[in-house]
Every structure is written in C-alpha cells, then in structure tokens.
Design goal:
363 residues; alpha/beta; 2 domains; 16% strand; single chain; 34% helix; Rossmann fold; four-stranded antiparallel beta sheet; eight-stranded mixed beta sheet
Length: 363
Amino acid sequence: MRSLVADTPALRIHYLQEGTGSPGKLPIVLVHGFPQTSHEWRHQIPALAAAGHAVFAPDTRGFGGTGRPGVRVTRQLLVRDLIDFLDAAGVDQAHLVGHDWGGIIASAAVFERPERFATVALIDTLTTVWAPWAIHGYWFKSRGRAEDFFGRHAGEWIRSAFGGVPGSYAGPPVSPWVNPRADAASVAASARPDDPRNHWTPDDVAHFEAAFADPAAHQHAISYYRYGLPLHRIIADADAPGGERYEFLDETTVAAMWEHEGGLWAHPDANEFLTFAPEHRQRIFERPALYVGSPYLLPEAWRSGWQSHERPPTSDLFADSFLRPFPDFRLRTVTCGHFVPEEMPAHTTELLLDLAAGRLHRS
C-alpha cells in the first residue's frame, strides 16, 4: 500500500492506495469510521487490489493524516471533500464503501452525486435516521462533556475500545462508553474468540491512539456529531412531500435528554427515531446498494430472529431508512461487533467483491 497525499481546493487529504485496476473494473473507494483512519481497511485494500481494482482509502477531514482546519463540520462539507478527492485522484466513477461515519458520508454522497458511484456498500452505519440506542449521539450534544472526556481519557479510551484494556473513566453520565469488564489478570490471559486483541495488534492500537491524540482531532470528532448530525423530529403529514415534515431540535434540547435527572432512558423522547438528514429523506439511489449490519446497529434482528432474512422489517423508521432510498437493496447480517471490516475481514472483502461484480443478488 502506498501512503499518499492529495491536494484538493479546500483540504490536504492523506490516503492509502493500491492497484492500478484491470479493464472493466471500476475503482473502489473505502471511507473509514469514527474514531479510526484509513488503516481500518488494511485487510481489504490488498485483497481488493489483487482482484483487479484500483483501491483508494482516504482519511476524512480531521482524522489521520488529513488536514484539521477547524471549520465546523457538516455532511455537505464531507461530501464535497470526498468528491474533491475523487477529482484529485482522477476517479470519475467508483464503487463506494463506508463504515460507521464513513457510511453516513457515503449515503449523503450517493444522494448528492449519484452519477459518481456505480454501487454503494454501507457497513454498520446510518443513512438518514439516528438509532436511539446509539446513545453517544446525545452525549456529543451536551456541550463540554466530550471536550472534557477526550482531554482526560482519549488514549485510554482508544486502548480500551481496540485493545480491551480497561481505563479509569466512568460510563453515563460521564461517557456513553462503558469500560470492558476486564482486570489485569484477564488482560494478561489468553484472548477469547471475541476479545479485541484477536482483531487489533498492539501496532494497530498504537496507530489509532496516536492518530487520535491531537486535540484538533478531538475538536473535529466532536464537530462531526454536534454539527454534522442536526437532529430533527419526524412528523407524519399527508400534505408534506413524502408524507412527513421535520422539526429541528437544537443542541440544548438534545443535550437535555442526556442530562435528564433520571438518565437518558427516563426522558420521554429517548426512544424516538430522529432524522439528521431531512434534506435527503426523499432522495433515491437507483443503483445496487448493500447494507452489512451487526447486532450493534440492528439489535432487533437478534432479538426477533429475522437476521436470517435478507430484508429488514419496515416496522420502524431506522429499518425503513435503508429500504426507502435504495430500491436495488441487499441486506447481509454478520455476527460480530461494530468494527466489521476488522472483525470479519475476509467476509467483508468477499461481500464487496461480489457487489462490485454484480454477484450479490437481492432477496
């Protein structure tokens, strides 16, 4: 893999690249999630390149080796970054893949610029609706909390998330992330099949820790959630386009949910599905789309047993947010944690190659 830099009109973007591409095979662009970098795709990049694709994995604004200009982050800005990167790399059209925040960027990109993408693969991520069980979305709106947490605990939080090493921080209300149930003895013991140390080497953990150590990276991460996800209530309205209208909830209103005296789940609106992308709720991407979901973002699948099916139920707005904009839709569930490309690397690669080749059929 080559480590390169692209100078775009607004931003210097670091990226990993491998492969020149075979005739008839479009490039594949991989967009990482929070709190990671393009290093997330270290297993997929060589395998996809070996299959004949030119592969590009940029670090998104504020992360890894990409610039940290301090400008307030919006999804529209992140889409512009991605399109500018494609232009700088000479990529006219590509297969687009996004995990976590990379998927939020990818879904916005295919809605805004569908002509630039032949397919889209969204891995354990969102399109337009915030899943209420992803409680960190409310925490980031509570001004000062994320700043204090990352200032005190950024390194040990990364080591905890990717190395399984417990830190000193508490869970709610201080943080939405609870320490792994581990102690010095269990950390020293041999790894279990689901132990993070089976997926991330000490060098991997050190990479992510170093990449997130810069306070400017914290600032950008906070901006992604605080400003890039402007939450709105979805209100049924037969007279509105698509049968719904939207009511903006400012940061103070959302923060009050996290700060509720009885805790988040005691707040009367805590289980409400909200949209962070009202401007995209009526958009359609006609080309093939894949969603890869884990129990982290599709918990109902594992509670009700529909994970063996290839289409989610449309009983809630979150599931509907994948079916509604993607008429050519495929669902594949995985039994692992949230970091699917690293926890199931070979399977992830296989799905991406099958989607790009037109072998991944709809249900």
